[in-house]
């Protein structure tokens, strides 16, 4: 579903990621860890074709990312839901309008019952008409998750989804991602919270990858 063969990525001629090979199977659960600045966000951006590799081959759903046209990339984006590090809401819209945006911007219908059900699932049924500025950090993150999955993607990529949350709220968010994985979704989470990884590994079979020295490696047995 996501396949990397000897992928490298450079910014302004300086190589940040090198020789990365990985096969992400449907229904799998991956953590991506590594120090700040190692390239976790960059790696995720490659996985949803926001960036293209500077070397190697990146296959998304059987298509070579470097050969995709605009329509193919738009198709890929519908199959991959992304929870961004900085939730990026439109402040003048309500929570439910923000969550529905991936549908409304592509002129697709919004089913009000499904939207209500989704907001209830992430525990925000009572906050539907609130504006982003009125939401707590945990509420924003759960809204970002709801927005990422409103198009029913096959894959969910989450970039530090628990970054500003306390431990209890982090576990709550992670349990939603675990539940999505149990429903068959492929999940990849970038985080440097090793405690969270350990907690989640008790609930789900997760593969832990680490970016160190520009390379992608399996994390040690301690995780
Ligand atoms: N568009 C860009 N142009 C040039 N350099 C960039 C660009 N985006 C990221 N970088 C640099 O690449 C490096 C890796 O950034 P990235 O955000 O991928 O790391 P990260 O592991 O996600 O970091 P963090 O854990 O702090 O979020 C950083 O040094 C960053 O400054």
From TrEMBL:
SUPFAM superfamilies: P-loop containing nucleoside triphosphate hydrolases. GO terms for biological process: cell division. GO terms for molecular function: ATP binding; ATP hydrolysis activity; transmembrane transporter activity. One of its GO terms (cellular component) is plasma membrane. The keyword Nucleotide-binding applies. Residues 2-223 form the ABC transporter domain. Keywords: ATP-binding, Cell cycle, Cell division, Nucleotide-binding. This is Cell division protein FtsE. It comes from Thioclava dalianensis.
């Amino acid at each position: 579903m996501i396949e990397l063969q000897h992928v490298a990525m450079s910014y302004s001629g300086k190589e940040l990621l090198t020789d990365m090979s990985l096969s992400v199977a449907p229904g799998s659960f991956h953590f991506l860890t590594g120090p700040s600045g190692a390239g976790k966000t960059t790696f995720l951006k490659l996985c949803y074709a926001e960036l293209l590799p500077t070397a190697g081959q990146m296959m998304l759903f059987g298509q070579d990312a470097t050969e995709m046209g605009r329509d193919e990339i738009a198709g890929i984006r519908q199959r991959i839901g992304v929870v961004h590090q900085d939730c990026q809401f439109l402040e003048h819209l309500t929570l439910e309008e923000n969550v529905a945006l991936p549908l409304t911007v592509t002129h697709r219908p919004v089913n009000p019952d499904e939207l209500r059900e989704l907001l209830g699932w992430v525990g925000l049924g009572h906050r539907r008409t609130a504006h982003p500025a009125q939401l707590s950090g945990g509420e924003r993150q759960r809204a970002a998750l709801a927005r990422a999955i409103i198009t029913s993607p096959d894959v969910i990529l989450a970039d530090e989804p628990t970054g500003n949350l306390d431990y209890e709220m982090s576990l709550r968010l992670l349990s939603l991602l675990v539940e999505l994985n149990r429903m068959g979704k492929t999940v990849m989470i970038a985080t440097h919270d090793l405690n969270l990884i350990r907690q989640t590994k008790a609930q789900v079979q997760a593969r832990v990858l680490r970016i160190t020295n520009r390379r992608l490696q399996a994390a040690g047995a301690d995780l």
